[in-house]
Amino acid sequence: xxxxxxxxxxxxxxxxxxxxxxxxxxxxxxxxxxxxxxxxxxxxxxxxxxxxxxxxxxxxxxxxxxxxxxxxxxxxxxxxxxxxxxxxxxxxxxxxxxxxxxxxxxxxxxxxxxxxxxxxxxxxxxxxxxxxxxxxxxxxxxxxxxxxxxxxxxxxxxxxxxxxxxxxxxxxxxxxxxxxxxxxxxxxxxxxxxxxxxxxxxxxxxxxxxxxxxxxxxxxxxxxxxxxxxxxxxxxxxxxxxxxxxxxxxxxxxxxxxxxxxxxx
Length: 265
Known about the structure:
Helix content is about 75%, strand content about 0%. It is mainly α. It is elongated and about 75 Å long.
């Protein structure tokens, strides 16, 4: 359920042209993914472990057997404490082993890169860029979650899906979303209205929570997390509403004229 609902933002676009999207992804994405998998195989030398992780790998097994009652978290804390208390002379042993392995790693890496074609090297570079971007995005989302950033408002369709997903018919989450989208498209306006109203209420909730959250971020000195004025929603004033009505007036006049001509004919 959680995985399916996480895809709600893409659901409308996905089901609008499922055949076209699936064919495009099957041809293009599979080809690119296959190339990346082939190039990032086990042939590429692995980075040697740091001094600390060498210590952990050596001590983890014996410590687990010695203290089977410890949880994984407690075991990690115990190993970190043991490392901090380890004399510098003993830490140096692990560091020297790391340096020796690093020299071998650099030699193997140079030989590996030398056998790559320019296209393969470019593909590996692009794969690394995407991987790092994904990692940065994950860290950013995790940070915002820790800082308590309000959840974005849901659309009327999102709310409709969350209420009807479990009882929807489909062999997979994507099939259920497609079916629900078709149902939503054919739903009368009167039946859509409650969901659209809930979505409007959720927008108000989001804006109120964001104002409080951004004030808190300002106090913490995190101006980088505060939206710019361009990103903030514009409030509709009486003047802007009147301007919008004046702009629509000529269109309404044209429509009335066309209707009159048709009736005369």
